[in-house]
Specification:
The protein is of the alpha/beta class. The chain has one domain: Rossmann fold (3-Layer(aba) Sandwich), CATH 3.40.50.2020. It has 6 helices and 12 strands. The strands form 3 sheets. Strands 1, 4, 5, 6, 7, 8, 9 and 10 form an 8-stranded mixed sheet that branches. A two-stranded antiparallel ribbon has the order 2-3. Strands 11-12 form a two-stranded antiparallel sheet. α4 links the parallel β8 and β9. α2 packs across α3. The longest helix has 19 residues. The two termini are about 30 Å apart. The mean pLDDT is about 90.
Length: about 210
């Protein structure tokens, strides 16, 4: 599991605990998710390429660091991934945004595709895949396979909570994709849900549970 980073910052862990709480209502869940996404964004973008450009401060001229290369691509795995977007776009307003529509068949636990729309030139962009849960890993693996077919080469996966089974599956299928998460939980139950987890993130974001 050398491809996973668990962000253990106290603010991240505090907000995650409130997200886990089944008494947290949808409107507060969405607010907390936006806040924690900004904190996680710092980690997943830690080594973005930098270049310098000449600027004038009120005091003097200098070579100042700025982000280099094409704008990032943020890819939301529908529908729960949308909960991350506002927080990320607050920090990265020029990022390009794409969507991968996959749902999990409740009997087979396999992903079924229903939508795919992503930015151009993925081969020249760092691509961050957003999905709150990494459970079996099937959906994330399928989404990343689709992105690679579309040209993406530099891919990272960001989630709130991961299961060891999902991390192992992701590392086996896509060993080049780093995972950033707020927690590595105990495992999966017989229905393929993470425990202790936080329930179905999409239902909790949109109040459809």
């Amino acid at each position: 599991m050398n491809q996973i980073t668990v962000v253990d910052h106290p603010l991240v862990q505090h907000k995650l605990s409130h997200l886990r709480d089944n008494k947290t209502p949808s409107h507060l869940f969405r607010q907390l998710l936006r806040e924690i996404s900004q904190l996680l964004a710092y980690e997943v973008t830690r080594d973005l390429p930098i270049e310098t450009r000449s600027i004038e401060t009120p005091m003097q001229a200098m070579e100042a660091p700025v982000l280099a290369g094409k704008k990032l691509a943020l890819i939301s795995v529908l529908r729960a991934g949308n909960g991350f977007l506002d927080g990320f776009l607050d920090l990265l307003p020029l990022a390009r945004v794409g969507f991968v529509g996959l749902y999990r068949d409740e009997e087979t636990l396999k992903p079924v595709q229903y939508y795919f729309k992503v930015p151009q030139h993925l081969d020249k962009r760092q691509t961050i895949v957003l999905d709150p849960m990494l459970a079996t890993g099937n959906t994330a693996i399928a989404a990343i396979s689709l992105l690679k077919k579309a040209g993406a080469r530099n891919i990272r996966f960001l989630c709130l909570v991961a299961a060891p089974e999902g991390v192992a599956s992701m590392n086996a299928a896509h060993p080049d994709v780093a995972i950033v998460t707020a927690a590595l939980d105990e495992g999966l139950n017989k229905n393929g849900y993470i425990y202790p987890g936080l329930g179905d993130a999409g239902d909790r974001i949109f109040g459809t549970d």
